[in-house]
Amino acid sequence: MTTRSSRIVHVLWDQPPKGVTQQAVEVTAVGGLTVIPAHGTAVVQVTGDAAAAVARNSNGPAVSIKAHNSQ
């Protein structure tokens, strides 16, 4: 069975004027390396710095949680 290793991050985005490219202002890791089985799922707990970033930014600027392949 094949697995995939991913890292998850909380991203705070700026809010530029129309026509200007949006940029990440702050990127906070959510946990460590997460191994996901083929055709499977994983649950990652948001704690520590990531939980603080979510709480600090949840009612304000644009934010997202992103996963990216990693080793």
Sequence-ordered SSE layout with sheet pairings:
Layout: E1 3-13, E2 24-37, H1 48-57, E3 63-69
Antiparallel strand pairs: 1-2, 1-3
What does it look like?
- The protein has 71 residues and is mostly beta strands.
- Helices cover 14% and strands 45% of the residues.
- The protein has one helix and three strands.
- The chain has a three-stranded antiparallel beta sheet.
- It starts with a strand and ends with a strand.
Biggest sheet details = 3 strands, antiparallel
H and E order: EEHE
Q: What is the number of strand segments?
A: 3
Strand order of the largest sheet: 2-1-3
Strand content: over 45%
Q: Helix/strand/pairing class, anyone?
A: mainly beta
Percent range of helical residues: 10-25%
Termini gap: 17 Å
Overall geometry: globular
Residue ranges: pLDDT <50 for 5 or more in a row? none
C-alpha Rg, in Å? 14 Å
Figure out the total of helices.
1
Average predicted confidence as pLDDT = 88
Keywords:
mainly beta; 71 residues; 1 helix; 3-stranded antiparallel beta sheet; globular
Quick rundown:
This protein has 71 residues and is mainly beta. The protein contains 1 helix and 3 strands, in the order ββαβ.
